[in-house]
Amino acid sequence: MNSSSIAQGLLETQAVKISVDPPFTWASGIKSPIYCDNRKLIAFPAIRETIVREMITLIRPMNPEVIAGTATAGIPWAAFVAHEMKLPMVYVRPKPKDHGAGKQIEGHLEPGKKIVLVEDLISTGGSSIKAADALRNEGQGTVEDIIAIVTYEMLKATDAMSEAEINLTALTNFTEILTEVKDKGYLQEDQVSLVQQFAQDPSTWWDNFSA
Fold first, then answer.
1. What is the mean pLDDT of the chain?
2. Does CATH number 3.40.50.2020 belong to domain 3-205?
3. Element (H, E) at 16
4. Residue 94 in contact with residue 119, Cβ under 8 Å?
5. Which of 118, 139, 102, 129 is nearest to 38 (CA)?
6. Which of 120, 125, 127, 65 lies closest to 92 in space, CA to CA?
7. Which of 7, 84, 111, 167 can bridge 176 by disulfide, Cβ–Cβ 3.0-4.6 Å?
8. d(Cα 136, Cα 195) in Å, to the nearest integer?
9. Which tens digits make up the pLDDT trace of 147-173?
10. Who contacts 68 (Cβ-Cβ below 8 Å, separation ≥6)?
11. pTM above 0.70, yes or no
């Protein structure tokens, strides 16, 4: 797998954007030099096909019986993969519905199945682990692997995945994206260094930068 070519595709389609000053503001309130919107990628057939092909190559040795996607951004990727692999698919809501049957998992899921969870992006890993927990508890399935398009390589996510006994595999990552950014001249050398510091401590990065 060529993670640098995936990173390049994300930058070319502007699914990933880099801005040091001003930074982006995430929903959590964190100020970040990187913003990733992988929903854009479904509109570009070439990079879409590459991502699906690479995902399937990585997923096959995991021997899943079901492909699961996280709502909403993981759903199309899980659907593409499940279709090509001819496997059942379900998707996981952020929380159980407050009406009807109150399910968090949508689709038909037999108990005891081995599931690979498909994500578009891993930041802190919290929402992904909650989805895995739902598949394990409500779905009574086995979840050992999460595959994502991008990981920000945050230490918090690494620790959380380890604690949850989940293996994370990503097609590309924060480091590869920054390498492409540097090689293509999107940022100056000193700005690249500042952006690299973000993954180490996202919550204080902007405070330290703007001080």
1. 92
2. yes
3. strand 16-18
4. no
5. 118
6. 127
7. 7
8. 36
9. 999 999 998 899 999 999 999 999 999
10. 78, 89, 90, 91, 92, 105, 115, 116, 117, 118, 131, 135, 143
11. yes
